[in-house]
């Protein structure tokens, strides 16, 4: 074994450490629980709680104020060299590498892109704030009651601050090429794609037509088939909306995926509202089972407004700033503001 964990914790904390070690072993890490005084490991970690930590020592505490889950705490102390890890995929916004055959470690890029406005660039600092936002959100998601129907679940394992940068660690999932969109308002690409909706009565209670900024009684969930930014002849490509039946060719449980996506949106909507922010819409990635959310959830993949008495005139906290021509520094500033308002 490469890593030995000496478990000095007491009671339930001791059980938590044992379970975390077992889960990490199942995820392909060479790790085991070791007896005090054991040697011969590449890495040896000693874990304590506030009841067992020796006074005056700088210990790894599993129950420090604002502590992360035990599995995240252990991962934060395991050595790795990101540059030397085998590459899974590198895209426009992330570099993803294998840590084990069941776990990936991701480094975000500070890139920003808008298809509609054909604007591509870089906004320094947004890579790290996207990771911090994603990690904080997934930690809260993990605390949701297990009895919730279509309970949101994520592949998130850890956020790691390292000499090579800030990283997010997730379970390797069985991915598909579909993005899931959830919208509370008629805004964004549907406004440009679905023309003349204002001419026809809707199925809403008052049969009012759907126009820009119409608020839906229930969040609308839809699927997109994803395209690269350019095809082989360097022509720009947009993602294409697909029906549920088509989505079911790649997602095994489309019904669960849709309801989980809707519940995720409504949970975040309520959380953001407490911070004075209105969630407009968002995009997430769901694995082929239809039951696991992966990748990021950050201001980069949602619309949200601050001080939202007049939703169309309120301040954008998302990539709409970029679409409107804002400077990269403003984008970072508002991403950071959203993070602070929601999670602090």
TrEMBL record:
It catalyses: 5-amino-1-(5-phospho-D-ribosyl)imidazole-4-carboxylate + L-aspartate + ATP = (2S)-2-[5-amino-1-(5-phospho-beta-D-ribosyl)imidazole-4-carboxamido]succinate + ADP + phosphate + 2 H(+). Keywords: ATP-binding, Ligase, Nucleotide-binding, Purine biosynthesis. Gene3D superfamilies: ATP-grasp fold, B domain, Phosphorylase Kinase, domain 1. Transmembrane segments: none annotated. Coiled coil: none annotated. This is SAICAR synthetase/ADE2 N-terminal domain-containing protein. Residues 173-328 form the SAICAR synthetase/ADE2 N-terminal domain. SUPFAM superfamilies: SAICAR synthase-like (SSF56104). The keyword Ligase applies. The keyword Nucleotide-binding applies.
